[in-house]
């Protein structure tokens, strides 16, 4: 219904290339998270799609209609692209109902669309409040309601949860996902929080220095990162030097089976996810086990991240689940790597 | 969807052409607005440029002959001495009152909090008139210093009170927890926090003393301003007046330069997070005696003029000032101030908007340049505009348009600050959101930008308007012959010791000037903070 297509988009500020040939396609009805460190150009990309910034190269199509190319662009108000900015940016002089109804024509307002979207974001009956009477989370919900009210085919969200505390963030995230689905809107969410990107999105695009390094389903990006940088940025990664030989990587953690094996041999970098590393009591013995010492522990409740020192001095992290796992500082343990590893 | 697409393709061409014509940008800056702002700054700097050109034309010999005299040296030292004494006195009174009102359990502190700001509403020449009309021999250095101090200490009091109300008590608590006593905490932490407020307030006082004309003239203390006016008024000694003006401007520039050198480089950061209201010191048994301090200051600065004016108003009942003359003067005041405020706003809008919306060298430079008028005494601006009109624009000489231009140059900084503050109330992000919700630029201007900025710009315009009504020296020099305003009538009548006749003008001026002061006191938060 409303596919977003970004083709070779470039944008520079003076000497800085904010966007350096960005290609993206978001299928109709999907939510894509654009993930990247601050300064990678993700907000600029959003502003180009919304029509707030002109392009220097490439083109943007919404629903098969070209809305931007260098020197010619459709004004923001003609794109039917709704925006939820970082800090909500509610109109301070309008009530909640006034904010939500801002983009609506009189008919839709009369038909109760305002109350309908307020209910959708979990704020029924808040119409008469003023923005300053709301908490940060409520303001953000109103900003989402305001964006969704005119039923835009495309919604852009610019780090909409970054100012909220963790508990509120998860809840709001879920509600907004539901609201977007209810309107079957296509959406682009910009974030630097990989947890957010992986949990909420149908598609993840990883950006760095104005380029898209990889785009795909969250699970795919996590399991098959395009390069070492993506591997490290999306989720935790243990990166070890190794040599490739006969489809196995020889590392300090032993000979490990390589996923999608390559026939060549030589020096490689081996990427292992911390949850692949099993931590056992050092009473276990076996050829596949590697001895190590626990140097610190980050306890997260459902899991814990252990920092371990191997005999050769290299330091790695491993994720353990449940209370049974060894975790004392200076405790000797034995490590085993599960499943296949990736090499680059 | 297809219908909207069709409408868009037909409409977008016109819209795009419009956008291309109106919103042409170079390096992200809107060209039209930059040009308008540059033009406004050029108008604002005309007097200064003219002054420089004329002084240069006079030739080094002539300038030296005027400058290197015992008289000039005496004038300079008198101006500097007055500025020093008044600034120190204002700092002492301003800090003491602010601390008492914001940080102690002083009885009646809400009342004193507002009253302490009110002397700003009294033009110095009105205060000078009030004292002189009561004590006929009240003249010279110390009387002038007293009147100027009583009128200008709020320049220190207001920012210091705001800073004291805004400082995070956590910093003082930390200092106490680290073993520093109450006094060492005050001098080591609190006073340091106040440093920016003290510096800016003290600078305003010193600048004001340099530029003051009314009080020093009435109280017969010779400073630069009085000497310039005498030269201009009696001998029409152009070069002499211009050279003295240039010296005064140089003195002012030196002051600004010293202040910027001395300005501390430290940042006054406040870590984010909610802060609590400031701690209040319990005065204990000294509570009531301490209340004498603000009471005495208020008595001298407000009570004294009030008593004096009431007395002269009452004595004037037998020989009433013709109501017609008062009405004419009031009408003239309103009319020229209206013109002045409108002109100021027209010049200030592009500069303020540019400064609020765009960063970078050009907007910053333009904004800074627009503040130059702030440091120029009204007398100097008046003088250079008179000469400018006489030599280069004779049709403008002695017209209300010229007077309005003088006001615009004088109060441009005031209006730029107001426009800038107002424009920040409507950040571009809000307009972008409104556009993305399908509303065109004009609709967004009407429903978002204007509702958010109009109150601030309106308040700024009102402030300029009322400040124009109070202005004396530039009005004296630039007004059309025979046109009298409230300020000039008061001036003329006091000059010939017709105190009863001057009283109604003084009373009207105070009432008019009280309004912006009230606004200012409320905005700085003194009222709100002390209200809690």
Low-confidence stretches of chain A: none
Largest sheet of chain B: 2 strands, antiparallel
What is the string of SSEs of chain A from the N terminus onward?
EEEHEEEEHHHHEHEHEEHHEEEEEEEEEE
Instruction: Compute the CA-based radius of gyration of chain A.
Output: 24 Å
Description of the molecule:
The complex is a heterodimer of chains A (344) and B (532). Chain A is an alpha+beta fold. Chain A is built from 9 helices and 21 strands. The longest helix of chain A is centred in the middle third of the chain and has 17 residues. Chain A is globular. The mean pLDDT of chain A is 87. Chain B is mostly helical and 532 residues long. Chain B is 79% helix and 1% strand. Chain B contains 26 helices and 2 strands. The N terminus and C terminus of chain B are likely disordered. At the A-B interface, strand 6 and strand 7 of A face helix 1, helix 21 and helix 22 of B.
Could you outline the blueprint of secondary structure elements for this entry?
The complex is a heterodimer of chains A (344) and B (532).
Chain A: E1 4-13, E2 16-26, E3 31-35, H1 42-50, E4 57-62, E5 65-69, E6 72-73, E7 81-84, H2 96-100, H3 106-110, H4 113-120, H5 136-148, E8 154-158, H6 166-182, E9 186-191, H7 194-200, E10 203-208, E11 211-216, H8 218-223, H9 228-233, E12 238-245, E13 248-251, E14 254-257, E15 266-272, E16 277-281, E17 290-299, E18 303-310, E19 315-321, E20 332-337, E21 342-343
Chain B: H1 2-22, E1 25-26, E2 29-30, H2 31-58, H3 60-67, H4 70-103, H5 109-115, H6 124-134, H7 141-152, H8 154-166, H9 169-177, H10 182-211, H11 214-218, H12 224-235, H13 238-262, H14 287-290, H15 292-316, H16 323-357, H17 361-370, H18 372-375, H19 378-392, H20 400-424, H21 428-436, H22 441-470, H23 473-478, H24 486-495, H25 499-523, H26 526-531
Antiparallel strand pairs in B: 1-2
Helix pairs in contact in B: 2-3, 2-13, 2-16, 2-17, 2-19, 2-20, 3-13, 4-5, 4-7, 4-8, 4-10, 6-7, 6-15, 8-10, 9-10, 10-13, 12-13, 13-19, 15-25, 16-17, 16-20, 16-22, 19-20, 20-22, 21-22, 22-25, 24-25
């Amino acid at each position: 219904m409303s596919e977003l297509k970004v083709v070779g988009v470039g944008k520079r500020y003076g000497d800085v290339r904010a966007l350096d040939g960005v290609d993206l396609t978001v299928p109709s009805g999907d939510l894509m998270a654009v993930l990247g460190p601050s300064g990678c150009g993700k907000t600029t990309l959003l502003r180009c799609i919304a029509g707030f910034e002109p392009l220097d190269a490439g083109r943007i199509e919404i629903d098969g209609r070209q809305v931007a190319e260098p020197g010619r662009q459709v004004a923001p108000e003609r794109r039917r692209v709704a925006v939820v900015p970082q800090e909500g940016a509610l109109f301070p002089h309008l009530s909640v109902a006034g904010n939500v109804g801002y983009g609506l024509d009189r008919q839709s307002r009369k038909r109760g669309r305002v109350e309908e979207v307020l209910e959708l974001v979990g704020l029924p009956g808040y119409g008469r409040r003023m923005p300053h009477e709301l908490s940060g989370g409520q303001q953000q919900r109103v900003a989402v309601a305001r964006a969704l009210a005119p039923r835009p085919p495309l919604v852009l969200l610019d780090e909409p949860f970054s100012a909220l505390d963790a508990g509120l963030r998860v809840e709001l995230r879920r509600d907004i996902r539901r609201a977007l689905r209810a309107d079957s809107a296509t959406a682009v969410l910009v974030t630097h929080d990989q947890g957010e990107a992986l949990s909420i999105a149908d598609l993840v695009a990883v950006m760095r220095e104005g380029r898209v390094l990889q785009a795909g389903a969250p699970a795919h990006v996590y399991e098959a990162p395009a390069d070492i940088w993506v591997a490290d940025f999306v989720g935790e990664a243990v990166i070890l030097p190794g040599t490739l030989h006969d489809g196995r990587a020889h590392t300090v953690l032993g000979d490990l089976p390589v996923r999608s094996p390559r026939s060549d041999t030589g020096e490689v970098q081996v990427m292992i996810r911390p949850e692949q590393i099993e931590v056992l009591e050092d009473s276990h013995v076996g050829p596949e086990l590697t001895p190590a010492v626990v140097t610190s522990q980050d306890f997260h409740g459902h899991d814990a991240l252990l920092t371990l020192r191997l005999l050769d001095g290299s330091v790695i992290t491993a994720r353990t689940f449940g209370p049974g796992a060894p975790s004392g500082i200076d405790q000797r343990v034995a490590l085993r790597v599960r499943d296949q590893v990736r090499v680059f | 969807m297809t219908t909207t697409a069709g409408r868009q393709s037909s409409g977008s061409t016109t819209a795009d052409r419009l956008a291309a014509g109106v919103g042409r940008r170079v390096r992200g800056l809107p060209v039209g607005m930059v040009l308008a702002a540059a033009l406004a700054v050029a108008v604002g700097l005309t007097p200064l440029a003219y002054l420089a050109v004329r002084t240069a034309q006079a030739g080094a010999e002539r300038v030296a002959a005027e400058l290197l005299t015992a008289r000039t040296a005496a004038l300079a030292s008198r101006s500097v001495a007055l500025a020093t004494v008044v600034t120190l006195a204002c700092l002492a009174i301003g800090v003491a009152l602010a601390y008492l009102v914001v940080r102690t359990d002083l009885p009646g502190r809400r009342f004193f909090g507002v009253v302490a700001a009110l002397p700003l509403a009294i033009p110095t020449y009105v205060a000078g008139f009030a004292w002189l009309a009561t004590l006929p021999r009240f003249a010279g250095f110390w009387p002038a210093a007293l009147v100027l101090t009583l009128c200008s200490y709020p320049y220190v009091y207001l920012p210091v009170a705001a800073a004291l109300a805004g400082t995070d008590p956590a910093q003082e608590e930390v200092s106490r927890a680290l073993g520093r006593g109450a006094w060492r905490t005050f001098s080591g932490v609190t006073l340091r926090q106040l440093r920016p407020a003290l510096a800016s307030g003290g600078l305003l006082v010193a600048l004001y003393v340099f530029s003051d004309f009314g009080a020093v003239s009435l109280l017969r203390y010779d400073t630069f301003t009085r000497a310039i006016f005498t030269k201009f008024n009696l001998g029409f000694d152009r070069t002499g007046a211009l050279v003295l003006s240039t010296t005064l401007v140089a003195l002012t520039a030196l002051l600004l330069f010293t202040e910027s050198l001395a300005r501390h480089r430290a940042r006054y950061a406040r870590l984010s997070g909610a802060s609590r209201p400031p701690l209040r010191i319990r005065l204990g048994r000294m509570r009531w005696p301490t209340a004498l301090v603000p009471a005495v200051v208020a008595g001298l600065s407000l009570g004294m003029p009030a008593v004096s004016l009431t007395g002269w108003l009452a004595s004037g009942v037998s020989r009433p000032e013709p109501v017609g003359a008062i009405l004419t003067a009031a009408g003239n005041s309103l009319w020229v101030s209206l013109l002045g405020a409108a002109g100021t706003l027209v010049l200030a809008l592009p500069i303020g908007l540019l400064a609020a919306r765009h960063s970078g060298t050009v907007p910053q430079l333009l904004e800074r340049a627009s503040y130059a008028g702030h440091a120029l005494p009204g007398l100097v601006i008046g003088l250079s505009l008179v000469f400018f009109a006489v030599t280069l624009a004779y049709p403008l000489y002695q017209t209300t348009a010229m007077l309005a231009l003088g006001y615009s140059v004088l109060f441009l900084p005031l209006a730029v600050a107001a426009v800038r503050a107002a424009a920040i109330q409507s950040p571009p992000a809000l307009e972008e959101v409104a556009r993305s919700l399908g509303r065109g630029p004009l609709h967004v201007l009407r429903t978002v930008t204007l509702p958010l900025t109009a109150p601030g710009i309106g308040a700024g315009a009102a402030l300029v308007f009322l400040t124009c009504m109070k202005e004396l020296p530039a009005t004296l020099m630039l007004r059309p012959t025979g046109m009298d305003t409230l300020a000039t009538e008061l001036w003329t009548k006091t000059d010939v010791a017709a105190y009863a006749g001057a009283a109604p003008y003084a009373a009207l001026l105070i009432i008019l000037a009280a309004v912006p002061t009230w606004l200012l006191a409320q905005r700085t938060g003194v009222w709100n903070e002390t209200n809690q």
